[in-house]
Amino acid sequence: xxxxxxxxxxxxxxxxxxxxxxxxxxxxxxxxxxxxxxxxxxxxxxxxxxxxxxxxxxxxxxxxxxxxxxxxxxxxxxxxxxxxxxxxxxxxxxxxxxxxxxxxxxxxxxxxxxxxxxxxxxxxxxxxxxxxxxxxxxx
Length: 139
Known about the structure:
Keywords: DNA-binding, Metal-binding, Nickel, Transcription, Transcription regulation. Pfam families: NikR_C, RHH_1. By secondary structure, the chain is α+β, with helices and mostly antiparallel strands. It folds into two domains: 13-49, Arc Repressor Mutant, CATH 1.10.1220; 54-133, Alpha-Beta Plaits (2-Layer Sandwich), CATH 3.30.70.1150. It contains four helices and four strands, in the order ααβαββαβ. The chain has helices at 13-25, 31-49, 70-80, 108-119; strands at residues 54-64, 85-92, 97-107, 124-132. β2 and β3 form a beta hairpin. The longest helix has 19 residues, at 31-49.
C-alpha cells in the first residue's frame, strides 16, 4: 500500500452538511474513508468505460425455466463465453422461476456482450450487470 497523503478540500458548507449526513447513514467513521471510497468508485466506473480493460463483475438474472428452449440457450451462451465465466450459482426460487448469478472476468466488451445476450432472451424476467474491479489499479 502506498503512503497516505493529507490534502485540503474547499466546498460549500451546505454540501459538507449533506456529506456528513451521508456519512452517518452509511456508518463511516470519518470523512477520509468516505472520500477514498468515492474516489475508488469513480476510478472503477472509469475502468468499465475502457472496453479492453480486464474487469470482474456479476450477471444476475431471473427466468422462467418452463420457457421453451431457454435453459438450452442459456447453457449455450455460457459455453460460448466460458473464458469470461469464473463460476455460476443457480437457485430455484419457486416451481417456475430460477435465479442465476454468473461471476465474470475479462474484457469489458466481452462481459457486456454476454449480459446483453442474456437480457435479450425471451423468458428472462430481469437481468442486471454489476461491475467491479480486479483492484490492481486501486493500490
